[in-house]
């Protein structure tokens, strides 16, 4: 009896990966082993960079808050210390947005913190 190989399933499996690597350069798009390795490596980069994205945004918010705080004659660390001491619950994302888009509101927060 001849050996039965499920070519339909194995071809579909390969085709699925090759479809995902469609925009890659050279052999990375159409040679099965290279495409599979490249695609798997891309998944690890994607996982890593989802974590890095959070880190980069936090750094950006801190820079924006620091720049706005310097116009009020405070450093970033002094401002954040005063905010925590006064008990104001505001995160860096919102504070950076206020500093960039609504300087009057940021100044109000700084004045409240200085007087508390």
Number of helices: 6
Strand content: under 5%
Number of strands: 0
CATH architecture: Orthogonal Bundle
Give average pLDDT, whole number.
95
Shape: rod-shaped
Tell me the radius of gyration.
Answer: 26 Å
Can you say what the CATH homologous superfamily is?
Ribosomal protein L20, C-terminal domain
Q: Please estimate the helix content.
A: over 70%
Task: Give the tally of structural domains.
Answer: 1
Distance between the termini: 88 Å
CATH class: Mainly Alpha
Keywords:
116 residues, mainly alpha, c-terminal domain of poly(a) binding protein, 6 helices, rod-shaped
Overall description:
By secondary structure, this protein is mostly helical. The protein has a single domain, classed as Ribosomal protein L20, C-terminal domain (c-terminal domain of poly(a) binding protein, Orthogonal Bundle), CATH 1.10.1900.20. Helix content is about 80%, strand content about 0%. Helix 5 crosses helix 6. The termini are far apart. About 10% of the residues are buried. The mean pLDDT is about 95.
Task: Indicate the topology.
Elements: H1 7-20, H2 27-30, H3 32-71, H4 76-86, H5 92-101, H6 103-115
């Amino acid at each position: 009896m001849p050996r039965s190989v499920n070519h339909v399933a194995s071809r579909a499996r390969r085709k699925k990966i090759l479809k995902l690597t469609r925009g890659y350069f050279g052999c990375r798009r159409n040679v099965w082993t290279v495409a599979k390795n490249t695609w798997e490596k891309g998944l690890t980069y994607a996982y890593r960079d989802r974590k890095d994205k959070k880190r980069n945004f936090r750094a950006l918010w801190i820079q924006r808050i620091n720049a706005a705080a310097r116009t009020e004659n405070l450093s970033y660390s002094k401002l954040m210390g005063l905010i925590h001491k006064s008990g104001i619950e505001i995160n860096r994302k919102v504070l950076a947005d206020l500093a960039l888009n609504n300087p009057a509101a940021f100044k109000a927060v700084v004045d409240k913190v200085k007087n508390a």
